[in-house]
Amino acid sequence: MNTTTKEVSRPDPASASSGPARTIKLSKPVDGHGGPLTQIVLREPTFDDYLKHGDVSKASRSDDGAISFAVDRVALIGWAETLSGVDRLTLGALAMKDVNRLTQLIVELVGAEGN
C-alpha cells in the first residue's frame, strides 16, 4: 500500500495580482478535492476583492466609549476563498492553529482596522 502524500496543485492565486504570494504551511494536511493539501498560498488582494468582501474586521464601541475590533468571520472566509482558491469546505477542515495563522495573514494583507 502506497502512503505517499502528494502536494495538490491549485490554480496560481498570485496570477490575479502583481504582488507577492504568501504561503502558510499547514500543521497537518487536509483532504482537498484534488488530494491532500499541505499549504495555502494567498495572493495579494485587489480593490475588486475589497469591494466584494469588505473589511475583515468590525468595530464596536463599548458603553464607556472604547472602540474594539473583532474579525468578521463571514468576510474572513470570503477573503480566504478568494485569495487562496481553496473552497470553503476544505478551509473548514483546517486545524484551529492553521486558521489562526491564516486569519493573521489575511488581516495583515487586507487591513485590520478598515484599511
If you had to describe this structure to a student in words, what would you say it looks like?
This protein has 115 residues and is of the alpha+beta class. It is built from four helices and four strands, in the order ββαββααα. The strands form two sheets. It has a two-stranded antiparallel sheet. The N and C termini lie far apart (51 Å).
Topology, element by element:
Elements: E1 22-32, E2 35-42, H1 47-53, E3 57-61, E4 67-71, H2 73-84, H3 88-92, H4 96-110
Antiparallel strand pairs: 1-2, 3-4
Brief write-up:
By secondary structure, the protein is α+β, with helices and mostly antiparallel strands. Helices cover 34% and strands 25% of the residues. It has one domain.
List keywords for this structure.
globular, 115 residues, two-stranded antiparallel sheet, alpha+beta
Order of helical and strand elements = EEHEEHHH
Strands in their spatial order, largest beta sheet:
1-2
The number of strands is 4
- Summed over residues and divided by their number, the pLDDT gives a mean of 84
Morphology: globular
- Tell me the fraction of residues in β-strands, as a range: 25-35%
What is the makeup of the main sheet?
2 strands, antiparallel
Work out the helix count.
Answer: 4
Could you tell me the radius of gyration in angstroms? 16 Å
End-to-end C-alpha gap = 51 Å
Low-confidence region ranges: 1-17
